[in-house]
């Protein structure tokens, strides 16, 4: 079973639109970490945010914001006023430690296309 | 700040050949992870090492092997290459088996098998 579900395979928006990327996770651990990574066409994985399970505060960084809700096991990512440079595949990941080490498991990714 | 270094960045091999990828973790990081990302896929965990010992094992094929050396760099050896091995291979490093949740990825090595 997929531990991280990104139901949106591809999202297409026009520049300046707001867009939310959904992420739902599944874990039995009480201590875990959630991440978002951006993968532009060049291929590298760019770290965006890390959130631990004890910190449900939402976070805003410029045009990016994240909404972590343990009650719904979701960690959604919103880009405000999207730009063409935001076009990329975005991965949500869950890191838990059943055996004592934290191994991130990635969702299948959401491809965001921002049209000019 | 020093990041995770992977080499080579690009590699082209023929079927049934052997390939070796190298990963140099961030200084003072003792844990290394290898991931494989096929075209249009999410990164899949292969294997990790902590203090030069295998720590966790994911979906690494038997044709692949890896190790972590005394200087903490790691090498992923792939033999009898198949077309399906064409992928982007990421290495990541962390301190203390990622207990802080901080994992740092390299830029990846792109392997193409012809």
Structure description:
- By secondary structure, chain A is mainly β.
- Chain A is 0% helix and 52% strand.
- Chain A has strands at residues 4-5, 10-14, 19-21, 24-25, 33-39, 46-52, 59-61, 64-69, 74-79, 88-96, 103-106, 110-115.
- In chain A, strands 2, 5, 6, 10, 11 and 12 form a six-stranded mixed sheet that branches. In chain A, strands 3-9-8-7 form a four-stranded antiparallel sheet, with no helix packed on it.
- In chain A, a hairpin with a 4-residue loop joins strand 8 (64-69) and strand 9 (74-79).
- The radius of gyration of chain A is 14 Å and the shape is globular.
- Chain B has 114 residues and is mostly beta strands.
- Chain B is built from no helices and eleven strands.
- In chain B, strand 7 (64-68) and strand 8 form a beta hairpin.
- The model of chain B has no long low-confidence stretch (mean pLDDT 93).
- The chains are: A mainly beta (116), B mainly beta (114).
- The interface between A and B is medium-sized, with 23 and 26 residues.
Are there runs of chain A of 5+ residues with pLDDT below 50, and where?
Answer: none
N/C terminus separation of chain A: 37 Å
Q: What does the radius of gyration of chain B come to?
A: 13 Å
List the secondary-structure elements of chain B in sequence, H or E.
Answer: EEEEEEEEEEE
Pick out the low-confidence regions of chain B: none
| Biggest chain-to-chain interface with counts | A-B, 23 and 26 residues
Average residue pLDDT of chain A: 92
Radius of gyration of chain A: 14 Å
What is the total tally of β strands of chain B? 11
Fraction of helical residues of chain A: under 10%
The coarse overall form of chain B would be globular
In this structure, how is the largest beta sheet of chain A organized? Answer: 6 strands, mixed
User: What number is the mean pLDDT of chain B?
Assistant: 93
Q: Roughly what fraction of the amino acids of chain A lie in strands?
A: over 45%
Which features would summarize this protein structure in a list?
heterodimer; A: mainly beta; 6-stranded mixed sheet; 4-stranded antiparallel sheet; 12 strands; B: 114 residues; mainly beta; 7-stranded mixed sheet; 50% strand
